[in-house]
Amino acid sequence: MAVTGTTVAQLTGARWVYAFALVTSLFFTWGFAYGLLDVLNSHFQQVFGISKLQSTLLQLAYFGAYFVWSPFAGMFMSKYGYKKGIHVGLTLYSLGAIFFWPSAKFEKYGGFVGCTFIIGCGLSTLEVAANSYIAVLGTEKYAAARLNFSQGFQGVASFAGPMIASRWFFTGKNATTLDTVQWVYLAVAGLGIVLNILFYFCDLPEITQDALAEEMHEVGLTTDDEPFWKQYRCIFGWVAQTCYVGAQVGVAALAVNYMVDQNVGIQKPLASQLFSYCQITFTVGRFVGVVLLNFVDPALMLVIYGVACSTFSLAASFAPGRAGIGCLFALFFFESICYPVIFTLGTKQLGKHTKRGSGLIVMGVGGGAWYPPAQASIADRNTRLSYVVPFTGYVAMTIYAVGIVVDQAIKGGFRFRTVDEIAEKRHELEAQPPASPSSPAEKSDVESEDKKETIEYIDRI
């Protein structure tokens, strides 16, 4: 059966750049929505008079949507392709944003929670499509670096959200009203509609699972022959992603409260601005990671960054005053590469299981629904001590990375530099001399073929 679809090798340079740039624009879209979410968490505490624990219903809705919807998004794209999946994601994203208007107009917190769930369904679909597409849009050697670069623009949007909030949500009469929230999300809906139109008219090359599997099988890599439930790197990658995202979301959701409660004279408007600086630190760390991941093995990098995240989250739990805030900034820096590296490690060489595996790893974002309530229940009594909860997530992620490093060392020796296993296998096959016939039967077949070719040559003469 002929393999359908496109491989990266078949793309021209111009088509590759166009596809890469357009899909990367999606990361900015949900980065902006995520940045606003963390600030709204604190804003709603004041407007609706709710506790920190109650305010995390937003995170529960947003990230719970990932847990519920991502597997369906992966199956949808396995059948209909990346482009149609992107259309579905952008449509849900715009609908959810539009319904923020009546929720703000009638001041219904439950409405905000429902709209956030719809936005989460849309963004989970986009994440399955965009993360997977960027990961396979080139050699596996630089997959982690490519995804970190694209997700860097998510970071840019993430700090733009809190900066807007510090200017409009927490100043003057806006500190106790929802007037500006409805306008901001109307603009967000407009952005989603514009992107949907752009993708409708673009020629986005479809990189199919069959083409990816064929590329692997040509060099003797047949790991995707095993059923999906035996793709252990992907299964445990989902566990690691669940724990990491839960930790990251918990850290961000209560960052404004953390800085205010450090008793160093920081009020909410300044805390919101400092939070945007934390997001800038995160973004800078992501682009630094792009450079490092061009040379260092991604699994080894994840071990180093995982240890750093564990250390600084624990330090933030016990360090008082400005020292704790400094640890919080360091924590944001070392979080930077974790999500894209876990994604690329978990979906590496899945072949025919690529889109299903992508859906599972993105489903791990659902961890953001469970960690914030657990952390907030402690934060209602002691915000600083609550940062022990994210520590557990970073430890689980680090264990996953250590397991991959050990597995690689057992199979091929310790690896410091990043490598392209498919390219290495291809070079090994090309370097091998042609096999000579070993058995009498094989020699007889070769002799018969030679005689046949000789007779055909004489007949042509």
UniProtKB/TrEMBL annotation:
CDD domains: MFS_FucP_like (cd17394). Pfam families: MFS_1. It is found in: Cell inner membrane. It is a multi-pass membrane protein. Residues 427-461 are annotated as: Disordered. GO terms for molecular function: transmembrane transporter activity. Keywords: Cell membrane, Membrane, Transmembrane, Transmembrane helix. It comes from the Eukaryota. Residues 442-461 have a biased composition (Basic and acidic residues). GO terms for cellular component: plasma membrane. The chain crosses the membrane at residues 16-37, 57-78, 85-103, 109-130, 151-170, 182-202, 235-254, 274-293, 300-317, 323-345, 357-373, 385-406. This is MFS general substrate transporter. It comes from Phanerochaete sordida.
